[in-house]
Amino acid sequence: MIAAEPPAATPLAPLDRRTLLKGGLLGAGLASAAPLAAQSAQSFTHGVASGEPGPDRVLLWTRYAGAQDTRLTVELSGTIDFTRPVAGASVTAASTRDWCCKVVVDGLAPDRWYYYRFVAPDGATSPIGRTRTLPQGPTTRWRMAVFSCSNIGFGWFNAYAHAAAADEFDVVVHTGDYFYEYGAGTYPSREQALTGRGLDPADETISLADYRLRHATYRRDPDLQRLHQLYPMIAGWDDHESANDSWRGGAENHQPDTEGTWVVRKRAAMRAYREWMPVSDDRWATYQIGDLATLFRLETRLTGRDEAPSLRAVLVGSQSPDEALASLARFRDGDYADPARQMLGTGQERWLADGLRASKAGKTRWQVLVQQVLMGSLSTPVALAEALTDEVPDYIRRRVREGALASRAGIPLNMDAWDGYPAARARLFESVLAADADLVVLAGDSHNAWAFDLDHDGENVGVEFAGHSVTSPGFEGYLSQVAPQRLARSLVEGNDQLRWADTSGRGYMAVEFTPDRAVSEYRFLSGIRSRSTTLSGTHRESLAIGQRKLDA
What we know:
7-stranded mixed β-sheet, 22 strands, 25% strand
């Protein structure tokens, strides 16, 4: 397990620690999360949050719903009782931004924890938040909780609650699908949905007002509020913050004839996200963790990505397995390999290549990609398709068998991940090798847990720690007839890059960097249908600096 004490370089003052242990800011587990709103006047509706940390600055967020636009005072202190104020600022909560307000406070010391609050003109105060700055120079340890895919209808956000109660991280990372756009009864179905985890609006989010309401619904969750209150967050959107399988020109779950133009919907989703989240307006960004790691937050969805190819479209009209294989081979050697197809876009590709070189030239130990979708290659094992029984529904058997046909033709499973953009992935890997980077990729999106060795043309490129979901169901949701251990074993045996997998658990990753080693501890919660922070198990994957592949 990753050690739970605060970093030695940034100890909490004795008064602060006593206050925390008495149930002040940190409290004691789940019981402390519910009363958060009681600390503030009614107008502070959704707690506080922080993000975009730097060595001398941090972005602070709150929402203050007043009768009119209101100027708030921001206070920052080295102690929880605010007897040692170190900085201040002011910001306006305005109706034009859905009463959300963000402010960057700078001039701070590196590698420090701070406490902050917002104060209204009448003296009402927000809940107290805790945040921190990034270290400079020699850094011996950095710890992150990494989350993805939190669908409120499927269950409680117990992963958030566990990370908040653990009090052992420097920052939290959310790789996307922070919320889901579907209307009630779609995903989850009404039979799957957990009572008391309703949606507002009840219909699918399409307009700016819809997206704002959906953010507000999720941010009422006490465990999500608690997580934001305790740690700065580095976050990027995936597809469900706008619409399923989105790309720059559209989405699978967008129908222009009934839902309007995609550009209007995309603009609304992006605006609401930037209002409600503790993020800057930058499409991509870099975070420098002293001399230990450079974090590159990528944008892989809405600005550079071309439309993903469709295996189903490739197979349309095939009357036999031989015809299907011939169609897949033509696709593999043609459109699939097209070097013009983009995932990041040329501007972001150049920025990343330059950043990787600069990071290594500056003697930074690790280069880390904070991004959304699987980068490791993953194909459907042929043996899995052959093992399916009549108990498996027809539509699932058809999908698995289509995937197995694609695998026989040398084509991977998920065209919506980096597997659908092989030329773009090859360019990224070539930039990693050119920089001589020590690469660690973080990913979400798939709802399952994976550990990959990444390689390119026979050279080790780095590793990928891909996290399981907070609540969204994984393979167990549609291949429940196959034992999870058997399914995971089949996937590992059928994919050269895949070293380990879990296809049935919900939770998060605890990722730690030291000068010599990177570790991901996959933490699995015992369940999500009731509130609990009990773990059912953990699994660790790691690598040494310079190794560029996982430990044997």
